[in-house]
User: What shape does this take?
Amino acid sequence: MQTALKISFQGSEPSEALRQSIEDHFATLERYHGRLTACHVIVKVPGHHHRSGRHFEVDIHLALPGNVTVNVGHAPGQDGRFDDPRFAVTDAFRRAQRQLEDRVRRQRGDVKTLHERAERTLERPEG
Assistant: This one.
């Protein structure tokens, strides 16, 4: 990667354990998609005043060559699993991995368009 990993915590002091988890997830992501040029991870720590629980939000902003960006964000809603910051981090990096894989497939032409699928389903054997 050309630029260092940037990690920001909003609403709390940085957690070294969570920072290490993010670095580990990022290392895995970078191993599969080594062409990353920048990564900024933002961990939003909920305050005690939230009525819907203490859901953590993790946003990931990735930059790739050619001014291509991939942004991963997710509002957890009422899903109690997001009370655990490790789950929120893992979920965000899983989403980032999926988006990068989808982008690679589209660039290779491996993804069929809706139009191609429609034509195939309309074909009927003659006879």
